[in-house]
Amino acid sequence: MVKIPANIHEVPFFRLVLPLIGGILTQHYFNPFSTTLLIFAILILFLLLLFTRYFIGSWTKRWVFGLTLNFLLVFIGCLLVSAKRPEVNIKPNSNYTMLLRLTEPPVAGTNSIKVKAEIIDIKPFSALDSPKPVLLYFLLSDSASQALSYGDIIALSGNLKEFSEPPNPYQFNLKRYMHLLGIVYYIRVSQGYWEKVGSNPNKIFKLAFNAQNYVIETLKGYGIGGQELAVISALMLGYKSLLDDEIRKVYSSVGAMHILAVSGLHVGLIFGLAVMIVALLPKRRYWMGIRLAIALAVLWGYAVITGLSPSVCRATIMFSLFAIGQTASLKTNGYNTLAAAAFVLLASNPFMLFNVGFQLSFAAVLSIVFFHPIIYNLVKPQFKLIDYLWSLLSVSAAAQILTLPLTLYYFGQFPVVFLVTNLIAIPLATIVLYLSLVTVTFSIIEQLGFLFAKVLGFTTWLLNSGLKLIDTFPFSSIGSIFFTSWQAILLFLSTLMFSVYLVNRRKSFLQLSFISLIGVLAIGTVHLLRVKNHAELVVFPVPKSSVICVNCYGNALMVLYDSIDTKYPTDGYIRNRALQKSHEINLNLYQKEEHSTQLKIIRKSGLALLITGNKSIALAYNDSAKNIKNINPLNVDLLIANRFYTSSLLNIINPQKVIIDPSVKSAYANRLTSTLIKNNIAYYNTSLSGFFEYNLNETNPKTFAFQ
Quick one: 48 and 157 in the same domain? Predict the structure, then answer.
């Protein structure tokens, strides 16, 4: 029998958090109320709540109090969103003189040094009501920026810009992500246009960042580096800046990213360590408060050091409530504790609701609390080792049930080998975490610290190597899965109905579960049929270049004229269109013997003609196009104007439309636009308008003479 709360009164925070979430969703997506109206409504509802509580004593009318409380929480959720929504009240794309305070240490990336900051003064703008979060990008060559640290105050002159929408279809939306973090603006800081003028850090966070730096430098001093240092830093401190693309891909593919994201597993291990520490103290009653204070200090100290991510905060709040309940001899309930943690976090920041880490963290814990006993009780191992392994497997399987819709929707992949992964990853990650703590603790004794560091480095190498080996297994991960938000909702609903069936065994809920599941499959099938019967051409803008995708009924060819990585701009599109693995053709490396039934490529003197069905696309692919002569005029559907384009091409090519890609400088693009308007030729600038999409399904035949 599934163990659930006997009645709703055992989980009061579930009753509170649901209307709060309803209010957050309403205001975020529809924004129906102004802040003033919300404050007025909350005041009226609060007075009504007091009235119903103290003046309506009839038990039969208790629903009035409950209804009023629910409406009050809905409006509070709306007010939280309205108050926390970032304001866009500074004119972007203008130069300002600013005073900023760094709110995090700088992080060196591939192309720049990135750091979060807040504007505390700006001229010539009027006085700020509150500091404005902003993201700064320093040049890698700006060595002075590498000496900056958390809390430093800098003065700079720069161009304040807003984040833009993604230029390519189904691409990661950085603007939306930053808005949820409360960040609207960014600045690319020019070398020599800024200066450090002071420092004003928060002492607690300064101590936390110093602790992070001390741990990393200590491990480096013992010779730990590369992917081992990156994994230890992420696993122990939540510091992910050292992780490279290879190790991220391996952990993601095999379903072990939760190891690198500090969460309930890590906080639980730290809590276990705290319990062992306080167990050494006297058991007398007056020591109970001291024991609790030490345990909470360890928990929240670790949470601060690891960056207070949603998953860390959720786990820390839950363990804190559990510790308080145990100390006060109160009966705790896992569902209510989870709901209480969600309530506290959403009350502090309603936009956490849209954070993927928040959603995955709470879904995983709720899934474990409900499904783990069911799965674990299916088998009764006789030996402790087998029982431990089975418990580990059952926890991993339980966590996947409610996180599956989110994993499919956000990441488009499913790690088939997640059970095998967790059998290796969780025990080794536990050892790595404890060894990290021991190594840093005993670093004051050089030889002892060196010994522990060697064992730590080897264990981490073993963890990475094991997961890399699993990643080589055939079909270890299913990728490029297109999953809509409606499919995710229906899959959640199917799981919910099945869960209710497990509780009360009513067949109607089992039927509803299957109907919802059929809905998931039906949406996927309809989408697949639609995209498989569609042919289109898409021009993807990338920095200083472009990629042409010819998608004919589910098969894609990527045509490019530069040696660039096409994965980032095209991955979302390929996943959405359920395409087979695309084949890339670089026009400068293309060989005549290559053949495609969906695309014919003709090249001459740096000019290429792409023919697919009855459509034609022309583009220059190297500098030789400047010298092309004696060619019969060509009528084409599209002409791609890139950095190899010359005005003389319009003398030999008659396009219906010209696509201007990002490699064309803005000044030249403006002159080209004027020329096209004079010649009555349609145009599209991908630098300004994003990707270009063109339907290839029309069937008007054309002939070409391009020899």
Answer: no
**pLDDT > 90 fraction of the chain, expressed in percent and rounded:** 45
- Does residue 59 carry a pLDDT above 80? no
Which element (helix H / strand E) includes 312? helix 310-327
Domains in the chain, number: 4
SS3 12: helix
Which residues are 537's β-sheet partners? 550, 694
Burial of 121 (0-12, 13-18, 19+ CB in 10 A): middle
Instruction: Identify the pLDDT of residue 60.
Output: 60
671 and 574 share one domain: yes
Report which of 541, 588, 594, 537 is spatially closest to residue 563, judged by C-alpha positions: 588
Q: Please report whether residue 243 resides in a domain.
A: no
Domain that holds residue 573: 535-695
If you ran DSSP here, which 8-state letter would residue 597 be given? Answer: S
Q: Are residues 523 and 594 in the same domain?
A: no
111: how many CB neighbours lie within 10 A of its CB? 10
419 phi/psi in degrees, rounded to 5? -65, -45
Beta-strand relationship, 555-560 and 583-586: parallel
What letter represents residue 572's amino acid? Answer: G
Q: Number of helices and strands (H, E) in the chain?
A: 22, 20
Q: What kind and span of H or E run contains 542?
A: strand 535-542
Q: What is the pLDDT of residues 572-621, one digit of tens each?
A: 898 888 776 678 889 988 766 454 667 888 888 899 999 988 899 999 99
What predicted TM-score, i.e. pTM, was given to this entire model?
0.88
Amino acid of residue 142:
D
- 643 touches 623 (CB < 8 A): no
Is residue 481 within 8 Å of 412, Cβ to Cβ?
yes
What would the two tokens of residue 401 be? 């049930």
Cα distances (angstroms) measured from residue 154 to each of 98, 100, 445, 596: 8, 5, 39, 57
For residue 154, report the phi and psi dihedrals to the nearest 5 degrees: -125, 150
Residue 196 backbone zone (phi > 0: left; psi -120 to 50: alpha; other: beta): beta
Is residue 327's pLDDT more than 70? yes
